[in-house]
Amino acid sequence: MLSNLRILFNNATLRKGHNSVVRNFWCGKPLQSQVQLKGRDLLTLKNFTGEEIQYMLWLSADLKFRIKHKGEYLPLLQGKSLGMIFEKRSTRTRLSTETGFALLGGHPCFLTTQDIHLGVNESLTDTARVLSSMTDAVLARVYKQSDLDILAKESSIPIVNGLSDLYHPIQILADYLTLQEHYGSLKGLTLSWIGDGNNILHSIMMSAAKFGMHLQAATPKGYEPDPNIVKLAEQYAKENGTKLTMTNDPLEAARGGNVLITDTWISMGQEEEKKKRLKAFQGYQVTMKTAKVAASDWTFLHCLPRKPEEVDDEVFYSPRSLVFPEAENRKWTIMAVMVSLLTDYSPVLQKPKF
């Protein structure tokens, strides 16, 4: 039995590096949750309430504590299989999903464009029905969000968005778990986005306000986020009493921010735009000059892979950078997603304060 002792980890006990602190997690009798996610799809965080997203983060912390720090074996997905469709290559998404699903006793099956052609050799409808008969869930990393929507409509099993042109929800879960570990709470934090109006920003916009976080986003002219997503984010901010600032000035977005966040300027499929994009994003590199206007407790996130023009080495490898704990947390959060969508497991760790 776990005792009712507070589990407080610091830099020395948790890691050899300097980027991750886990705190404000307690062990003991878990707080019962009314959240039920089993059987759901995870296509976008727009479809989830703040309480439901909190539950996935709680479960992530629970699995990380029990498996990594306590050394427990939890075959929660034993006998289950996962179809992994990858139209785009990946390091973190593939590795975190394959190793995480296997660690929980399940069998992941990796499918590339050489193995499966969505809507080409076989219709999306037929693919969805075949996968539903042979696997328990599908994680798909695709070019078009519309393909995910069709897969979800035609499947009888959960479909998880591993990345699309519009959203990247599993990345944001990892980001939030990392910030929860570092700051002890998410409420009241100001997130400063400096970069492209892309799928990462869209996913932040669909979730940050639900935790009481403010968002200040700077994107170059012509590279702003989707107007429909901005409109919905404004509604979320109003409902939750948070601030949403959209600007074309990187320093304005960084001013007072607790978390400086950027991403690649040139995503897969945009290689022909490289020269044009590099010109448009001049002045958007995150440096210590950017950090000078941020809050005194500023940290830095980047979902990787990183290019030097996006953030310089001084920030990227600084003690304030959380990029490598952020990368590791991709594993614990995707494990939590799979467990929550496929089982009735309840966390043992008490719910943290969000």
TrEMBL record:
Alphabetical list of Gene3D superfamilies matching this protein: Aspartate/ornithine carbamoyltransferase
PROSITE patterns: CARBAMOYLTRANSFERASE
Keyword terms: Transferase, Urea cycle
Alphabetized SUPFAM superfamilies for the sequence: Aspartate/ornithine carbamoyltransferase (SSF53671)
EC numbers: 2.1.3.3
Pathway: Nitrogen metabolism; urea cycle; L-citrulline from L-ornithine and carbamoyl phosphate: step 1/1
Catalytic activity as recorded in UniProt: carbamoyl phosphate + L-ornithine = L-citrulline + phosphate + H(+)
Pfam families: OTCace, OTCace_N
Domain Aspartate/ornithine carbamoyltransferase carbamoyl-P binding: 40-181
Domain Aspartate/ornithine carbamoyltransferase Asp/Orn-binding: 187-340
Superkingdom: Eukaryota
Function: Catalyzes the second step of the urea cycle, the condensation of carbamoyl phosphate with L-ornithine to form L-citrulline. The urea cycle ensures the detoxification of ammonia by converting it to urea for excretion.
Subunit note: Homotrimer.
Family, similarity comment: Belongs to the aspartate/ornithine carbamoyltransferase superfamily. OTCase family.
Name of this protein: Ornithine transcarbamylase, mitochondrial
Originating organism: Mesocricetus auratus (Golden hamster)
